[in-house]
Amino acid sequence: MAERLVYINGDYYPEAEAKISVFDSAVMLGDCVTESTRTFNHVPFRLRDHIERLYKSMKVCRFDCGLSPDEMECLTLEVIERNLPAYEGMDLWIVHNISRGAYPPTGDQSTKRTPTIIIHTAPMDLRYWAPFYVIGCHAVTPPSRMVPAQSLDAKIKNRSRMAYTLAELECKLVDPMAQGILLDLDGCLTENKGGNFFLVQEGVLKTPRTLNALNGITRQTTLEIARNLGIPTLETDLQPYDVYTADEAFFTSTPYCIMPATRFNGLPVGEGVVGPVTRRLLQGWSDLVGLDIVQQALQQLPADQREELLSCAP
Amino acid sequence: MAERLVYINGDYYPEAEAKISVFDSAVMLGDCVTESTRTFNHVPFRLRDHIERLYKSMKVCRFDCGLSPDEMECLTLEVIERNLPAYEGMDLWIVHNISRGAYPPTGDQSTKRTPTIIIHTAPMDLRYWAPFYVIGCHAVTPPSRMVPAQSLDAKIKNRSRMAYTLAELECKLVDPMAQGILLDLDGCLTENKGGNFFLVQEGVLKTPRTLNALNGITRQTTLEIARNLGIPTLETDLQPYDVYTADEAFFTSTPYCIMPATRFNGLPVGEGVVGPVTRRLLQGWSDLVGLDIVQQALQQLPADQREELLSCAP
Amino acid sequence: MAERLVYINGDYYPEAEAKISVFDSAVMLGDCVTESTRTFNHVPFRLRDHIERLYKSMKVCRFDCGLSPDEMECLTLEVIERNLPAYEGMDLWIVHNISRGAYPPTGDQSTKRTPTIIIHTAPMDLRYWAPFYVIGCHAVTPPSRMVPAQSLDAKIKNRSRMAYTLAELECKLVDPMAQGILLDLDGCLTENKGGNFFLVQEGVLKTPRTLNALNGITRQTTLEIARNLGIPTLETDLQPYDVYTADEAFFTSTPYCIMPATRFNGLPVGEGVVGPVTRRLLQGWSDLVGLDIVQQALQQLPADQREELLSCAP
Amino acid sequence: MAERLVYINGDYYPEAEAKISVFDSAVMLGDCVTESTRTFNHVPFRLRDHIERLYKSMKVCRFDCGLSPDEMECLTLEVIERNLPAYEGMDLWIVHNISRGAYPPTGDQSTKRTPTIIIHTAPMDLRYWAPFYVIGCHAVTPPSRMVPAQSLDAKIKNRSRMAYTLAELECKLVDPMAQGILLDLDGCLTENKGGNFFLVQEGVLKTPRTLNALNGITRQTTLEIARNLGIPTLETDLQPYDVYTADEAFFTSTPYCIMPATRFNGLPVGEGVVGPVTRRLLQGWSDLVGLDIVQQALQQLPADQREELLSCAP
Amino acid sequence: MAERLVYINGDYYPEAEAKISVFDSAVMLGDCVTESTRTFNHVPFRLRDHIERLYKSMKVCRFDCGLSPDEMECLTLEVIERNLPAYEGMDLWIVHNISRGAYPPTGDQSTKRTPTIIIHTAPMDLRYWAPFYVIGCHAVTPPSRMVPAQSLDAKIKNRSRMAYTLAELECKLVDPMAQGILLDLDGCLTENKGGNFFLVQEGVLKTPRTLNALNGITRQTTLEIARNLGIPTLETDLQPYDVYTADEAFFTSTPYCIMPATRFNGLPVGEGVVGPVTRRLLQGWSDLVGLDIVQQALQQLPADQREELLSCAP
Amino acid sequence: MAERLVYINGDYYPEAEAKISVFDSAVMLGDCVTESTRTFNHVPFRLRDHIERLYKSMKVCRFDCGLSPDEMECLTLEVIERNLPAYEGMDLWIVHNISRGAYPPTGDQSTKRTPTIIIHTAPMDLRYWAPFYVIGCHAVTPPSRMVPAQSLDAKIKNRSRMAYTLAELECKLVDPMAQGILLDLDGCLTENKGGNFFLVQEGVLKTPRTLNALNGITRQTTLEIARNLGIPTLETDLQPYDVYTADEAFFTSTPYCIMPATRFNGLPVGEGVVGPVTRRLLQGWSDLVGLDIVQQALQQLPADQREELLSCAP
To answer: Closest partner residue to E241 among C62, C156, C209, by Cβ?
Structure first.
């Protein structure tokens, strides 16, 4: 198969040579905004929406990458084009990372710097998440709390993510396969390191407001699918009690679209199986993107694991 | 002059070639701990203390870099040794950056990864701060608030620092030369992107507790110097009112040791000049490290700028 | 022109003689409720609504001014009537200030006191704000936080406003012409010293809830105008990120109705110009009140300033 | 007896004519700082400390009254001098109120304004508090919470005091003679509208830190007296539980120095009587100021009330 | 009349003998969930809803009582059946208390324990509340704050209720007949020890969200009745200001359905009388349950008290 | 062996018959205060201190049990005396539970009720904790937060402990043998369901302040022992970072005195073994109480378990 190429500030590099200076502010300060888009059948999904959010992030971070959104879109399509030969039979991620550029070792922020633009692709490897489509994952709340928006707003999609990593590791103490769901300072549900959270209560699809969470494009799409399917939706403050007593729950994120959660802090969510509203929304996603997202993931598993999984499904 | 060399996982690279993969978790997640040590007359200052704090940071972040603290100390001394030829007549920074290693694109944190160990040096360029020794800097509180410790504890010296960067840029709206001092969620003083804060009230040297701030080694050293000089010290909660009505104020950080602050949010601190307790502490620092830290900085300025500065000093 | 007269507890005084005792609780305790109403073409706008809110403020403050709302309305109309000769060709403010009366120097609050009722008028001098209709103002968030409702509810329109004054002065450090917009303790937008705040995101007009803000009559009127124009509205929690990424933003207050904000903390709001939704709402206001509110303000400027302003408008 | 004279911006007025414009920012914005000093035997107590705090308040409020502290001290002594004939046999308050001056009706804060300096005196009428020396007062916590320092710092002694007034009125619902003691947002004790709070636990004199309270001069003096008497002191966070279980409690404020509190929220404090540490401190105060402060107050009561009071004392 | 019988873990006991071990975790830890249902004309009201909430409470508390919800419903009906002879002419409460069982004196929570199931009935004695239907009650906010959901979620209907009891006693200091309404940590209205709170503002029926309050079945029913009557409803954050300025207010709870509140912290709510919306909702309740709930309560009063009450009603 | 007898309101009952009414407010409201004292060699330890705290709890809860502290002490000694025959060769707990008495089903709190006084004993069974003396326990922070003092002060030793139970069960998800340590709303360490927490940092013994924790008598005693041994002590705010980087940690509580904690949230504390300061304090405890508290616990284990444990100890 063809080699994957990473775009860095005007040039393309094979992955093994795709590097940035250790003095880049991405490394020195986590001062880097980002987007992750995926393709379905090699068509990027809502790429323009991702690019627009990327520019919002840059604006709030007070830097300009030197390209217009249109230029960024063209460039991104070129990166995909160049990499497609490496993705026969497999969808891909497209990841943008844009840092403020070289790090000023003194406190002097006034030096003009050239931002670092990195665009890479990656195989849409779904094997980690695939079993969750069938049996659901285990959602766990860590003791650490979400960074509040008045400190760093999660709506800025950024790479200063140590807080998420540490919280996720706390969750792994409960279950090595746990998927974290952070609480805010008031104890309300927010998001996790890469996804939003939803639950179903008496037929209504509910998800936290975005006061302390990214307004995920997958989140928005899921709300739209639900509305199209006639499922009532509500963006509101949710608490652990709501998950314990919900009928269904799931995460949303770019790679897996919807990841059912059938346990929460050690207790079953609803009946402890992937529920009917979640199934309808998964189907809605498959219809929207033109491929069966569950089958795509399951096909990546070895045949015996897939069969075992399906046999133990309810 | 000789070329500077950067240590990365066992090898030495000239600075221009010192790079890490764009897939490193330092880049992808800001998942990187750090220390910055400096030399005085080419002797590293409290290197062992920095290394011990580095290992505390790694422990709390739940990863192991594969070297013992002793090995890290030897390695660091070797990095300095190799770089000293490049620092004739100039002191240097020694910076450790250790990330968790390659980034797992799925949520799977269980993969064993090799941490990335980077040790680089940098010239102790003090020109940005040098004028502040004479006329003091302008400390400014931004509207954004410090990340609270229950989200990400500042005592973990880490590279997920976008919050500090954005807050600092807010301060620059008030004054392009402003030095930020963040407030915590209760409105108490914490620290800034690289330093602790002190003030003097009626002869007592006060500094915020470390509930939402790094326990800086320069902070500790300054407290020790004060105690040796018979200056009473107090670690306590401080508020903007305390700075407005203080007699003196300053920041502490590795490169500059003490940076006097003579204005606060547009108002003079005390008489608006570098005060006597600050001067005694600066002298105490010079005595401790065996060189005149103020002169070292001023000597880096062009002669005319230096003279102008000294002529306008009170 | 005729002299303006101030009503104080039953008598009328020329402005220069309109005084209250230095022992009044307005002076000694800021213990005073207030309303500011304006006229359009000499017709007071929603005077009854203002009077009703004034009585709500008095009730919550636990004192009774001795007049019924009807009597207060009649009296107010009389004050206007008496002052109209002084306002040829100019609209006017009508300001009510009602304090609890004389201040008891001991802690004894049980003494029966006679409230001090002051009603004055003032010329509707719009020169300060006029340029903002054309080029927009600069909205800035100060580091100080809004007084929370459980300490003193902003819905009580009161004269204990030092917190607003100090916050406004903090904003002026960023820009001498800045218009402050305070954040609450959670970092959400509230109001400023005399106005509410709105923004437009993808065609929806949004404004903070009134948990920590006055429910302004201009705010209510603007929401009504929007609904009449078919513009969707939403009262919700808003954060700085929302302003940075909004298409348009503005303040509302009695004198200027709508004051466009085209910059926020140093960054342009949307395109950095007065936007189309704001223009429609300004037009809606003009239609409602029967005069062109923008022209009224601009006409107060010297001709050369007005022309320069209009020439530099987009 | 001679007439009392009020100083206002350079002139002296009989009390009944001591007035300020209704357009002053003291009236319009509560934008006024203040001090209250008292005399003992016609000698002002720590006048210089009060004046220094007044200048701190002005500084933090960002205005300058046009007089130096020395000039203010001289002026104050002159005001006392002129008024002494009116205070035969009675001590007096000296009250400074300094506002920013005329109120700018538009948002324009840049206009240069002349501050309003008011200095008045008042008889040290202690009749309201006198019984509390004998039987103690009833301290009550209201449901409203102290304004937090990040909104308006209580260490700025200011006249925007509506929050205190409303909280005090809530306390009067429990007991018309109740003396309020406000809690901060975390539920810790702060201060009341004019005084600090102390309690005695197992021989240690404790008082809240000044994070959300004025650092009263009477508070400081009481701590000094205690230290001179060998009573251990502690400034720390205190909660209602601490008062319920304390041995003794009292308020401190300029007029009464120490006001014993023998009930708290309906329950007795300790034995419900004025306790021995409080008595020692009262004696210490009398010794310091050269008159028996309790007797001075009791002598102001009608003889029959005084006797009844003393007879019912324990 | 027949004797009342209490069900405890499989057996029936006369009330005087209905006891549980002092080692039960209900006694030792307040570790007990609960429901209170009432009958109207001996028909239990929404019993199934109560049982379902009971099972939600048990789930969140992580224990299983050993019976299915269906079995619990049958058992409950049997308890009612057995007790009905004791309730001629009077409705009854049905109270479920289910504790985790015996208390493990060491920290060892892993021991398997048999939950304690208690079902008792009680006469629907409405005499305490009856006058409030006519003249309304006095709602009072205590200084203590509601336990936040991240500490113990009020949506778990539980018997660890000391916080409510102490807050209620604080309210009784204001008025021995006061009905408490607790504020949350942000100063918003929540609930009281056994009921939810509603108010009417300009024709809209509003009640706090359930972030810090039980989602009462009476609350839900009242909202349904309102919607059926065409009264607009809103679940939102409410503050004391909203009650002070409301037109009407009331509590809802199982025994009394709706209890009008005509005073709030010493001030009248609206006109200080039971208002028209409250009356319509009371009528709606009577219609729904097939008996006049107000008359039922008033009939329990002695005739003279009832007459006096009705004569003093507006 | 003799039968144990429980005292309930004047009578003695064998344990199996020691019951209280299901209508008691301990059961219905968790409205019950408590103390747990233990004996060493059959001598009760600081019984008077426990009784005094019990009376403080009752006072703050606003009820009176009808006995004086002296009477309660005599009664307690009598309960011990009567039960000693049942404790040959074993120490015992003495537990006081005092509830407000019968529960008023209506909101009427004014009814005079007779408190329920229960005093029971229990064998000092230390087998659950014994291994922790040798290998240390695993301290874990749950996601739920401590009830804040302004909701219910932990210094009131009470039986409304569901919040502690649920938090403890969350910790057991991490490790079935975990010992919880709750964080307060700011993320600082507090206490757990029955004990205080200490850590050792560079030779200093630190423990959280009691703002959100019981001031345990074992806590006080441990501080006293430390001071007597010349170990510096500090009561201050502590955070998870402090435990991760501490040298040693332990819990204190009545039954086990000191329980070493050698792991914290999955990571070793210090070297992961019981440290030298902890050992000195354990020895200090043994010296104080006149028996080897570690041996006492280990002797309760089966010989083979004890040997295995000691062999695996470091």
So the answer is: C156
Q: How would you class F6 by CB atoms within 10 Å of its CB: exposed for 0-12, middle for 13-18, buried for 19 or more? A: buried
- Give the integer Cα–Cα distance in Å for B15 and B122: 10
Q: What is the CATH number of the domain that holds C301?
A: 3.20.10.10
Residue pLDDT, tens place only, B99-138: 999 987 776 767 778 999 999 999 999 999 999 999 999 9
Query: Cβ B188–D211 below 8 Å, yes or no?
Result: yes
Give CA–CA dist D49/D14, Å, rounded: 28
Mean pLDDT value across residues D161-181: 97
Q: Give the H or E element holding residue A137.
A: strand A137-140
Q: What is the crossing angle of helices A162-174 and F162-174, to 10°?
A: 90
**Orientation of helix B69-83 relative to helix B47-60, angle to 10°:** 130
- Residues F51-72: tens digit of each pLDDT: 999 999 999 999 999 999 999 9
User: Both tokens of residue A100?
Assistant: 């403020």
Picking from A68, A91, A123, the residue at the C-terminal end of a domain is: A123
d(CA A195, CA A249): 13
Beta bridge partners of D169: none
Q: Which domain holds residue F255?
A: 130-312
Least confident range of C129-143, E55-69, E103-117, E281-295: E103-117
Question: Nearest residue of E to residue C156 by CA position?
Answer: E241
Domain end call among A87, A108, A123: A123
Cα→Cα distances C70→B50, C40, C51, C178, E261, Å: 74, 22, 9, 39, 27
Taking CB atoms and an 8 Å limit, are E150 and A244 in contact across chains? no
- Which DSSP letter does residue F302 get? -
List the alpha helices (DSSP H) in chain A: 25-29, 47-60, 69-83, 130-135, 162-174, 217-228, 240-244, 276-289, 293-298, 303-312
Name the token pair of A155: 């709506």
Q: Indicate the DSSP class of residue B93.
A: E
Task: Answer whether D155 touches B (CB < 8 Å).
Answer: yes
Statement to judge: residues E154 and E266 lie in one domain: yes
Q: Are C256 and C291 in contact (CB under 8 A)?
A: no
Count the Cβ atoms, other than its own, within 10 Å of residue F270.
21
E209 chain-A contacts, CB cut-off 8 A: 237
**Cα angle at F53 between F52 and F54, to 5 degrees?**
90
Residue C206, classed as helix, strand or coil, is strand
| Cβ neighbours of F129 in E, within 8 Å | 106-107
- Structural domains in chain C (count): 2
**A and D adjacent (3 or more CB pairs under 8 angstroms):** no
CB F127 within 8 A of CB F76: no
Which of 53-72 (F) contact E at CB < 8 A?
60-62
Same domain, F297 and F158: yes
D204-207 and F116-123 strand pairing = unpaired
CA dihedral C292, C294, C295, C298 (to 10 degrees): 160
Please name the helix (run of DSSP H) or strand (run of DSSP E) that holds residue D83, with its range, or none.
helix D69-83
| CATH number (domain holding residue E32) | 3.30.470.10
Q: How far apart are CA E59 and CA E47, in angstroms?
A: 18
Mean pLDDT across chain E: 96
Of E53, E1, E84, E30, which is closest to residue E210 (Cα–Cα)? E53
Structure tokens at B144: 């954004």
pTM for the full model? 0.97
The ipTM assigned to this model is: 0.96
Q: How far is CA A231 from CA A210, A225, A249, in A?
A: 20, 9, 14
CB-facing half-sphere around the CA of E144: CA atoms within 13 A: 28
The residue type found at C107 is G
- F182 within 8 A of F145, measured Cβ to Cβ: yes
Residue E217 amino acid letter: I
